[in-house]
Design a protein that fits this description.
Layout lengths: L2 H27 L2 H8 L3 H7 L3 H23 L7 H14 L1 H12 L6 H7 L1 H15 L10 H21 L7 H17 L27
Helix pairs in contact: 1-2, 1-4, 1-6, 4-5, 4-6, 5-6, 8-9, 9-10
């Protein structure tokens, strides 16, 4: 076996065990000792290819975002994509790759502070794809007066950050990956279409006493 091929196999072997450990335990809970023990990898070999735990984590997150972005790019047509198609493709991928889902949520919900810049680089292509998808979706809609597509995208990103902060503060973090995806989907739909279902012809009506909307009265 050529040295180049041997190096590739060694890297892949280390990365596969590191990927599983970071997905299961998150960055904070993951252990280099556990990775080495699970893969029967000497620390000398591991540190030959990856300088430290940070380098190993970034390699795993980079792989996660790269494979997710490739799958979404293949599944979606940017010019005609809908919100349902986007989230369905994302959930389909995570359904087939549960470790990717957990690692994705760990990197998004609970990123190590000292690695924020490097993690942003890891997800740059994913963010670019997201912007293209959001632009395609929003350009089909009539936005509120004075609101540009870029303004709307910025607000959607702020809301996604709020979802991540909520999950982190609630102690849910990466262990509730499905919750993260569900809230992101709901938040996106709410941002586009609002919380209140409106009857045909106008605004939801309210009862004369100022209570809840009455479905028996015509819209205002």
């Amino acid at each position: 076996m050529k040295q180049e091929e041997k190096n590739r196999k060694s890297r892949e072997h280390i990365l596969s065990h590191a990927f599983a450990e970071f997905a299961a335990q998150g960055y904070l809970g993951a252990s280099v000792n556990t990775i080495c023990a699970a893969g029967k990898i000497s620390k000398g070999l591991m540190y030959h290819y990856y300088a430290d735990k940070d380098a190993l984590y970034l390699a795993c997150v980079g792989k996660c975002f790269q494979e997710l972005t490739a799958a979404l790019s293949e599944a979606l047509k940017a010019g005609t994509v809908t919100a349902d198609q986007y989230f369905s493709a994302r959930l389909d991928f995570f359904g087939e790759h549960p470790l990717h889902q957990r690692l994705f949520c760990d990197a998004v919900v609970n990123p190590p502070r000292h690695l924020r810049r490097q993690l942003a680089e890891c997800r740059a292509a994913f963010d670019t794809l997201n912007e293209a998808v959001l632009t395609a979706i929003l350009e089909k809609e009539t936005l509120a007066e004075g609101l540009s597509v870029q303004d709307a995208i910025l607000q959607l990103r702020i809301l996604e950050d709020c979802v991540s902060t909520y999950l982190k503060n609630a102690g849910q973090e990466a262990r509730q990956a499905e919750q993260h995806n569900r809230l992101c989907r709901q938040t996106f739909q709410t941002m586009l279409y609002g919380l209140i279902a409106r009857p045909q012809g106008g605004q939801p009506s309210r009862d004369p006493q100022g209570g809840q909307p009455s479905r028996d009265e015509p819209g205002l």
